[in-house]
Automatic annotation (TrEMBL):
<feature type="region of interest" description="Disordered">
    <location>
        <begin position="1"/>
        <end position="42"/>
    </location>
</feature>
<dbReference type="Pfam" id="PF11357">
    <property type="entry name" value="Spy1"/>
</dbReference>
<feature type="compositionally biased region" description="Basic residues">
    <location>
        <begin position="21"/>
        <end position="32"/>
    </location>
</feature>
<protein>
    <submittedName>
        <fullName>Speedy protein E4</fullName>
    </submittedName>
</protein>
<dbReference type="InterPro" id="IPR020984">
    <property type="entry name" value="Speedy"/>
</dbReference>
<dbReference type="InterPro" id="IPR057742">
    <property type="entry name" value="Speedy_E"/>
</dbReference>
<dbReference type="GO" id="GO:0019901">
    <property type="term" value="F:protein kinase binding"/>
</dbReference>
<feature type="compositionally biased region" description="Low complexity">
    <location>
        <begin position="1"/>
        <end position="15"/>
    </location>
</feature>
<comment type="similarity">
    <text>Belongs to the Speedy/Ringo family.</text>
</comment>
Length: 227
């Protein structure tokens, strides 16, 4: 028995809303899945950047640090010698530093540090010297390395631990940093080890680094007394 055209039309009309409902549900699921994938992708990107930095540090052994001797002063017939370390930074370390200053995340961080508590010209100079002490090829240094060096410089020179924590939010993201900052701290240990556990940099060496390109805007970051 064949169904009437009217019955077929009614059945088709009932099927259309059902198909639309299924289609909307499918689109909603895809939207939710896409949003979740984007969040996971952001988290994975931050983790991948840290993992890449760890791999780079482990691939390059700490270079032998050469010492030089200078005459401190002459007393009678005796010469008193003063041992000092040769600066570790290279032209490629300076090039890497200036290149990373153009990174939008680093620029945002520098702009936000209005009192220069964690990024004055001396702390930033130490980043250049730290790059030399680690000894990676200059083109391999990235945003993660920059913030690792700056964090260690702040550890070395500053008594207040609070300002440097802003690095976590800019590097790892305001949403994800509570989950990732411990990985950053582990990587900081690796970076410090690659530096030969030498974090101290003299003011004279910082000023030497600044003098290589004295008119660059970054060296105008002179800290003033904060209110």
């Amino acid at each position: 028995q064949t169904s009437s055209p009217l019955a077929s039309s009614a059945a088709s009309s009932e099927a259309v809303p059902e198909q639309r409902t299924r289609r909307k549900r499918g689109q909603k699921r895809r939207l939710v899945n896409t949003k979740a994938a984007a969040q996971e992708g952001s988290l994975a990107a931050s983790t991948a950047a840290s993992s890449e930095a760890i791999s780079q540090l482990k691939l390059w052994k700490r270079r032998e640090q050469k010492n030089i001797w200078t005459i401190d002063h002459i007393q009678g017939t005796k010469l008193r010698m003063n041992k000092r370390r040769r600066p570790s930074y290279r032209p490629e370390d300076q090039e890497a530093f200036y290149r990373l200053l153009e990174d939008p995340v680093i620029q945002s961080f520098l702009e936000a540090d209005i009192f220069l508590k964690v990024s004055d010209k001396y702390l930033l100079s130490m980043v250049v010297e730290y790059f030399g002490r680690v000894g990676l090829p200059g083109h391999l240094y990235n945003r993660v390395h920059f913030f690792l060096a700056l964090y260690i410089a702040s550890d070395m020179e500053e008594d207040n631990p609070t300002p440097k924590r802003s690095i976590f939010q800019f590097l790892l993201g305001k949403e994800h940093w509570p989950d990732l900052y411990k990985e950053f701290l582990k990587l900081k240990v690796e970076f410090f080890h690659a530096m030969g556990h030498r974090a101290w940099v003299t003011p004279e060496l910082c000023e030497e680094i600044q003098a290589q390109k004295p008119h660059h805007w970054v060296w105008s970051r002179v800290r003033q007394c904060a209110p």
